[in-house]
Amino acid sequence: MAENREHRGAVEPELDPVEYTLRKRLPHRLPRRPNDIYVNMKTDFQAQLVRCQKLLDGGARAQNACTEVYIHGWGLAIHRAINIALRVQAGSFGSLQVAANTSTAELVDDLEPETDAREPLTRIRNNSAVHIPAFRVTPRWGDHQTDEITSRRSDFTAQSSKE
């Protein structure tokens, strides 16, 4: 198979879509952990959101709940992955935090000729990706929360003393 690796400044020759069939390969080394969710544009948004929530909540029986879920989006699905992460965080009432990491991946496309007269080609292109861990945080008692509890306690004692 001949490789068509062009320099960054070079112009790619026009390929006739009738002469070649484009086959996009999967990215290298995709993590395959049970708490990884790969967001795409084909699957329903609500279904992907429910899957994230089920992983974090542990399903109906609350078994095997994950403390961390990794949401991955490639190319066109980056916007959807960010949306899902923000919706999961908003629905957690402050018990989840998210942190986005971006990357660029080198993807390989195979161009298979429709006729035997042409050579198969390989094209390399860059694609953006986002990786968002959504993880549970333990609530910390800060000064603001302590002050609020103290003020509520003093309001309660003031009302009790009047009665």
TrEMBL record:
Keywords: Cytoplasm, Nucleus, rRNA processing, tRNA processing. Gene3D superfamilies: Alba-like domain (3.30.110.20). GO terms for biological process: rRNA processing; tRNA 5'-leader removal. Residues 143-163 are annotated as: Disordered. It comes from the Eukaryota. Component of nuclear RNase P and RNase MRP complexes. RNase P consists of a catalytic RNA moiety and 10 different protein chains; POP1, POP4, POP5, POP7, RPP14, RPP21, RPP25, RPP30, RPP38 and RPP40. Within the RNase P complex, POP1, POP7 and RPP25 form the 'finger' subcomplex, POP5, RPP14, RPP40 and homodimeric RPP30 form the 'palm' subcomplex, and RPP21, POP4 and RPP38 form the 'wrist' subcomplex. All subunits of the RNase P complex interact with the catalytic RNA. Several subunits of RNase P are also part of the RNase MRP complex. This is Ribonuclease P protein subunit p20. It comes from Pipistrellus kuhlii (Kuhl's pipistrelle).
